[in-house]
Amino acid sequence: MNNQPITYRLDINGSATATYYPTVAKFTNQVLSKAENSLALIARIYRWYLIKFELETPRTVEEYIFDLLNLGVLWRKYGQTALSVRIAPFRFLARIAEWRKFSIIKPVIDVIRGYLMSFFLVHSRKKSNITIPRSLHDIERLVAWLDATGDFREDAFRYIRWIGYWRTKNPDHFRELMYSILSFTDWFEKASLIHLGIFTPHVDSFIAKNKDLYRWREDRFVCMRSRVEYHLNMVGAEIMNRANHQEFVSCARKTILAPGCMRKRSDEECEGKRTPDGIRCSGCESACHINQMRILGLKQNFIVMVLPHSSDLSRWAAKPGDPSSGVVGISCLSLLVQGGWELKRYDVPAQCVLLNQCGCKKHWDEKGFPTEIDLRELKRIMNYTSSEEITPSFRLMETSSQD
Ligand code: SF4
Fold first, then answer.
1. Residue 305 belongs to what H/E stretch?
2. Is the pLDDT of residue 186 over 50?
3. Could you list the residue range(s) of the whole structural domain that residue 151 is in?
4. Are 177 and 125 members of one domain?
5. Minimum-distance ligand 1 atom for the alpha carbon of 282
6. Mind listing the pLDDT tens digit for each residue in 325-339?
7. d(CA 294, CA 283)
């Protein structure tokens, strides 16, 4: 494991359970409390509208507050880029982002996609200078752009419904809403840096050093996330976990979806069984983090599947007659929340556990190294033990010896 984080690290000053998780819980409370005077009212009215017209199973008010904050951050980061794109094969780009999930020629598609995305979706020399959306049409263009990248597809899905709602409002009202959203976003950017910035010390330097390297790559938007996006995803994961927790713990079946980069061995050396659902660990390496979770799952009745990056998550959707099924998604900060929203779209109660830091060879590190999570957080989410019952010195690697 790297001592110096590539971009972020949750256990930078002690275990993540003792430092990161209490901090993000506290800061999320602060965000939601601050939103009471602005975004919460917009979120409540929108929720009421969805219930009245039966447009979706209503999510919690906190999730709609997050939608608004997320929109503000996305607008600030990508709005000008999106408005600068006049002509692009938006639908085609969105489709190839989906095809790659099912295709055996994914590496080829990724190369093509990288070039197409960079050619059509990023005009760095002629950025628009519009800082506040002039009308709903500007948000529609942003959403089309987000969808075309493939990396913000779940955001795009959710904003299509928001756009439908805002079409029922007059333009002045929409502009006032955008002022509230953007002023809250600006507060969030500053406050999150103070409270969560300690966990994201190398994001800016990683971007500065690597922006040319990633210019034509399909993961350029995933890997070039700004610091405020990291902080946003931290808060988003916390809100999602709170919103889904009760439903999740009551599920009869639970599955952990873990990334391949947690394995101790390379993909070629891993002896796990390849199945259509992912890789089932066979326990070939006692120090492997996946194996440690597998052993815990044998005792505590959950299964662990290793998934390739950008897998199709629809296969985890409940089928008629099946027992209720909940999923814990493990991923790095750049990918985690989108996966959680996707599972939610399939009515799967999902929980997220963050990798303590990113380290896979595909996206982040030339050689790659086995990534890990804080197992106490996994146990807390599973509701098997309260956080007080687990000693602060507990470490993931120690689990195998206890087993
Ligand atoms: S212990 Fe399991 S996941 Fe780890 S390398 Fe072996 S088979 Fe693969």
1. strand 303-307
2. yes
3. 20-233
4. yes
5. 7
6. 899 999 998 878 888
7. 8
